[in-house]
Design goal:
Length: 395
């Protein structure tokens, strides 16, 4: 029934020069998203609006689904775009639109016109009144309700004239690519995929690093992380995923350091290695799925000690979330089902029975001295032998 979509985006923070950048990125990302949908589309812009027009047969549901994953879109309005500018012709067209769109003509409505093109001979109020009365003439059982109409008939007079009465909520946020890039520490758990999603939502391009420990962790665990990465990439775009073999580093820490401090020391080395990839990829920060107090390694004391090795800012978008809130978010974005598959991560395998919850930096640093002779070479080997793949959404 529809051949076009009017795309609305938020206007906060995109004034002036930024607006152009924002729109460019949004249009680019919309085109990439639609590349995976059958059909040909044209994406155009006019001040404050982006239009998506199908130029061939297309799959409506899949198109909406694709647009609903593009950050920066606030509303998706299936719309009719028309060349008609003459008011009488336009009114006729809109009456036909109502006729074919709504089977029962007994709803309340209001016309909401926006005249951005000030050369148009009628102003918004005049269009509202005139069009409203023509619609009432055509469908006598309709009623006008300006406060709480069941149907809001929007008419926008710009260079493009469009009308629509339906709106689908978009994700909001900023188009990916408008705000630098960050290195996500991505595990197979519930939290870190959500953390990556949330940072990408603010326009940040994501790269990721995953630490695995074969043969202690399985190929299935690795595949699970790649699968999670793929789901996140449906929103965030292609993700460069660095898969680090962490076994020897981890075994060395296991042998030389107190077991109750294992997780925290391991975490410090993960951060260091992640930063080496951040350097390579030009990231501006690290991202983790940590939330205060969730586990021993996420107490304020632990995060203080972990953070101390980092030269990059560490973004923890879930910091104030309860586990249940994170689970709800992961259900919403579609990572939950994969996250709860049972394949274990390296951290779970080497985890101590009673991990330190209040590590002291000086003690941790002292114990890390046991690693002085060996760890640099092991870390370097881990970096040099890393497998890097680009993870993209499935077709
Ligand atoms: P998640 O559900 O994200 O795995 P978690 O509750 O299991 O989180 P931890 O295991 O303490 O928490 O990990 C805290 C954060 O450290 C994770 O959110 C992730 O960002 C990072 N991390 C943990 N393990 C790995 C790993 N094997 N590879 C990459 N990053 C990891
Ligand atoms: Mg984990």
């Amino acid at each position: 029934m529809y051949k076009a979509f009017l795309i609305k985006y938020g206007e906060i923070g995109i004034k002036g020069k930024n607006r152009r950048l924002f729109e460019d990125a949004l249009i680019k990302n919309i085109k990439i998203a639609l590349d995976r949908v059958e059909g040909e589309f044209e994406v155009t812009r006019e001040q404050g609006r982006v239009y998506v027009e199908a130029k061939s047969e297309f799959d409506y549901d899949r198109t909406v689904e694709a647009l609903r994953k593009v950050f920066g879109i606030v509303e998706i309005c299936p719309a009719c775009l028309t060349e008609t500018r003459d008011f009488e012709d336009l009114a006729k067209e809109i009456i036909e639109f109502i006729d074919r769109t709504y089977e029962k003509k007994d709803f309340t409505f209001k016309v909401f016109a926006k005249r951005a093109d000030k050369k148009y001979p009628m102003n918004s109020m005049e269009i509202n009144v005139e069009l409203g009365s023509r619609i009432l003439d055509a469908f006598p059982d309709l009623k006008v309700d300006v406060h709480k109409p069941e149907i809001e008939l929007n008419v926008e007079i710009r260079e493009v004239v469009s009308y629509y009465s339906e709106s689908i909520k978009g994700l909001g946020g900023m188009p990916v690519g408008t705000n630098g890039s960050a290195m996500l520490l991505l595990s197979g758990g519930i939290d870190s995929p959500v953390a990556g999603y949330m940072v990408a939502k603010r326009g940040v391009k994501i790269d990721a690093v995953y630490f695995h420990a074969p043969p202690y962790t399985s190929e299935r665990a690795k595949k699970k992380v790649i699968d999670l990465c793929r789901i996140v990439s449906e929103y965030a775009g292609p993700i460069r995923l660095h898969i680090v073999n962490f076994t020897d580093t981890q075994l060395e820490i296991y042998e030389k350091c107190p077991h109750d401090q294992l997780t925290i020391i391991m975490r410090r080395y993960m951060m260091k290695i992640a930063e080496a990839f951040a350097d390579k990829d030009g990231s501006l920060g690290l991202v983790t799925g940590e939330s205060i107090g969730q586990v021993a390694s996420q107490t304020m004391h632990s995060m203080f000690v972990t953070n101390e090795v980092c030269k990059y800012p560490v973004y923890r978008p879930l910091i104030g979330f309860d586990k249940q809130e994170i689970i709800e978010k992961s259900l919403e974005i579609g990572t939950y089902e994969t996250s709860i598959l049972p394949f274990e991560d390296c951290c779970t395998i080497f985890v101590a029975k009673h991990p330190e919850t209040k590590p002291r930096l000086n003690i941790i640093k002292k114990n890390e001295e046991n690693l002085n002779d060996t760890i640099d070479a092991l870390v370097q080997t881990a970096i040099d032998t890393t497998e890097t793949i680009v993870v993209e959404p499935e077709d």
